[in-house]
Design a protein that fits this description.
Blueprint (H helix, E strand, L loop, with lengths): L1 E5 L17 E2 L19 E2 L37 E5 L2 H6 L4 E2 L3 E2 L2 H9 L4 E3 L9 H17 L7 E6 L1 H13 L5 E5 L4 H9 L6 E8 L9 H7 L4 E9 L13 H10 L4
Parallel strand pairs: 1-11, 4-7, 4-8, 8-9, 9-10, 10-11
Antiparallel strand pairs: 2-3, 5-6
Length: about 270
């Protein structure tokens, strides 16, 4: 297992810092099928990524894409030769929509992030989740879309799921649901001790090829090494961890920084 240390790239724009918006609800247990839509499970509060709660939003079968996301809806026609990348945003997009602006981190540049990922040759799939989305249920939605791609002939190693903060929590649950060792996953700024305890308690296991990314100054998230160790010999086929020294903490998620975009693109199979 390799831990990489990355310094900021020359010419990178500085990222503002913010006051952390935590604690958030705990991650629910992943199940073989998505939870029933009518009765999302209860959750207890932890510093981890928000998930199911008594007020969680039920996910409709089809979410109408907002204008800025219309180019990133799940495709009607699948090309087995394309590389597909799912991007799952942070919670602030659920809370505020567009634009989402934190008083310290600044604007969450959702559209710019998608454009930069798509500019590297991926068919990018992303949608704005409703407020208080049930993480377990949404993970089932993503797993269903990935399964549809696989059934259409897309090779598993041509599929990547990238998640930021709450989106990374959903990515972990989707990995456990899919149980596919060839799919690529990038989880950014998700692991903290309480979250890992909750995942292990619910027997959530990482499957596939996992890249963890976080900033060394992030006081909300840190290393996923304990979760990697828990998943070894079960479903994880490859894992690495990239510790950035941007100094922006959780704010790295708000900008399409080369420091995390380039490793993500490479992990997904682009040179």
């Amino acid at each position: 297992m390799l831990i990489l240390l990355a310094a900021p790239l020359t010419g990178c724009q500085p990222v503002q810092m913010e006051t952390p918006q935590r604690p958030e609800p705990a991650i629910p247990q992943a199940t073989a099928t998505p939870p029933a839509r009518s009765s999302p499970p209860a959750a207890t509060a932890t510093p981890g990524i928000p998930a199911a709660s008594p007020t969680s939003t039920v996910i409709p079968d089809h979410l109408a894409p907002t204008p800025v996301l219309s180019d990133y809806a799940f495709p009607d026609v699948t090309d087995p030769a394309r590389q597909y990348l799912f991007y799952l945003h942070g919670k602030i997009i659920e809370d505020q929509g567009f634009p989402a602006i934190d008083p310290v981190y600044g604007e969450y540049e959702y559209g710019q992030i998608l454009e930069k990922l798509a500019g590297n040759g991926f068919e990018v799939i992303s949608e704005q989740r409703p407020k208080n989305t049930d993480s377990g249920e949404y993970a089932g939605r993503v797993a269903g879309q990935v399964t549809a791609l696989l059934k259409a002939g897309v090779p598993a190693n041509n599929i990547t799921i990238v998640g930021a903060s709450k989106g990374a929590g959903i990515t972990i649950l989707a990995s456990d649901l899919l149980k596919n060792k060839e799919i690529n996953f990038v989880i950014m700024a998700i692991c903290d001790p309480a979250t890992i305890v909750e995942l292990k308690k619910n027997q959530v296991v990482l499957y596939g090829k996992i890249l963890s990314i976080y900033d060394s100054k992030d006081d909300l998230a840190g290393s996923c090494q304990e979760l990697f160790s828990y998943s070894e010999g079960k479903g994880i086929s490859r894992h690495e961890e990239l510790v950035l020294n941007v100094g922006a903490g959780h704010g790295i998620l708000y900008k399409p920084l080369d420091e995390w975009i380039i490793p993500t693109v490479q992990w997904a199979g682009k040179p």
